[in-house]
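User: Cleavage and polyadenylation specificity factor subunit 3-II. Structure?
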Amino acid sequence: MAIDCLVLGAGQEVGKSCVVVSINGKRIMFDCGMHMGYTDHNRYPDFSLISKSGDFNNALSCIIITHFHLDHIGALPYFTEVCGYNGPIYMTYPTKALAPLMLEDYRKVMVGRGEEQQFTHENIIDCMKKVTAVDLKQNVQVDTDLQIRAYYAGHVLGAAMFYACVGDSAMVYTGDYNMTPDRHLGAAQIDRLQLDLLITESTYATTIRDSKYAREREFLKAVHKCVANGGKVLIPTFALGRAQELCILLDDYWERMNLKVPIYFSAGLTIQANLYYKVLINWTSQKVKDTYATRNAFDFKNVHQFDRTLLDAPGPCVLFATPGMISGGFSLEVFKHWAPSESNLITLPGYCVAGTVGHKLMSGKPTTVDLDKDTRIDVRCQIHQLSFSPHTDAKGIMDLVKFLSPKHVILVHGEKPKMDLLKSRIKSELGIECYDPANTETVSFPSTHFIKSDASNAFIRSSLTPNFKFPKDEITDTPSLHVRDERVSEGILTMGKGQKVKVIHQDELVTMVGGGKTEVEFGYCFGLNLCRLKNISKEVRVSNGDDSLLCVLNTKLSDEFGELGLRDCEGSLEVNSFRVRVCKNDDCPHRVDSDELSERLERVFFCCNWSILDKSIAWRVISVMKNMDL
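Assistant: Predicted structure:
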């Protein structure tokens, strides 16, 4: 069995996340997003690669949506109501509640720009009726073989990583996540799982963020300086997520500094979104939940709804305008009015995809921005870029991959050069195979398949034999309290015709196949310099007699291997099955060739023999003997 991963979106780019995974006969679509930087056919994933005939109901087992951002859910109404998918769809309760707000807001932006309407208001309602909401860590049985489970991802309200299991094969798709908590959301949390595959976002594949408090101070300083000089501050952001994070920050700062400059939301959408945040308080950070009894963090004292008549009104203000990235809508309208003034400030608090005005502003300090072939905007205002992104950074990605330790990792939702660097780190530092496929590419690798097996009584008894080790304290030379069990159970897997698979002890194999027991003995014969042997012990007189040579050897080896119980037997030294004796057979089959220098020296040859069980002891002793010649 194999796992096939078809990337339809977010392959070596940020936008229109959509990955179709085939795992042990089941086919799951993770996310169904749109690209904010396109207005043509590139806006949506190429759904024809799922089914040429358009029979998506039989082609997919289910759809899983990780969160409500448009680059993860923006194409869902189109796929269900226009393309005709009617199968199971899963998302968390907050995502199901907030997704219609985002989709309807985007639909209005499309209409306002004069674009062809991809789906209607009724399509959004009908689409959400097909959704099954799930709770965190709830085991959901999609069918008899496929089970899914959601884990807290931080990022935005309701965002979840999803675990999917089919038989013995398992995987996790992270969606977008944040490994550090912020003011209104907690950090991502997931169990330690045995995984064949981890598909993770890599938006900030090479970025290590500085202190959150330093970023907050820098942001507040820039905003305060602008309004103190009579300027206006535009903060283009999506209605859900960063808007609430920054409102909590600004509202608290305004209270502490006793500022009277108005802070505005651009539309009723964010006001409505704040109501959901109040209702879904259990999905927020621990700090917000702890203070909820005395004060709701989303009751902003200094934030008001914006009236369009104030757009060109004199005086300073701070305005949160949707959508983020200045990709259209009211934030673009405000940008046109405020960008030509040097006293104004535009602060970009998160990632901006290529093709948007926000991305153009972040790519340098442009003096003009072309919105289309007929519209050019003079940009004289201040541009302030600051990472309040809810995405995890490179350290967070590496921490998650190391924690889960999957067999394979696929990177999506990132930029190609940075993904390549992260891929190399995962391979070199963690030893895990990693891939970063482009859109429309498929990655395949084998899946896990466990089989049930019986075990013989002899094998079970051998597995129970203790083999404890008590490490000694290097200072006191006494055993420490730490006990290490290094047992390894070794057996032979057998399968007879018409019989169950069974693990047996190696001694049972001889009886089973009706043969005799054969022991393999290893041998090694090598020479040592006779002159140097004389320097080992001053008390023993060295002659050409075998017993005297073994006595010298015993003196040295006893110092090194006294704990092994080295025995001086007649004509040889022995420990377990290992034995060493003086060899006078010039045709010894175990003798190794001597070099030209050794041929000119007077040498004594020692022949060693041992069984496979004492392989490590044998080579330890031989190594010490050879060092006597150095």
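DSSP finds 19 helices and 32 strands in the chain. The mean pLDDT is 86.
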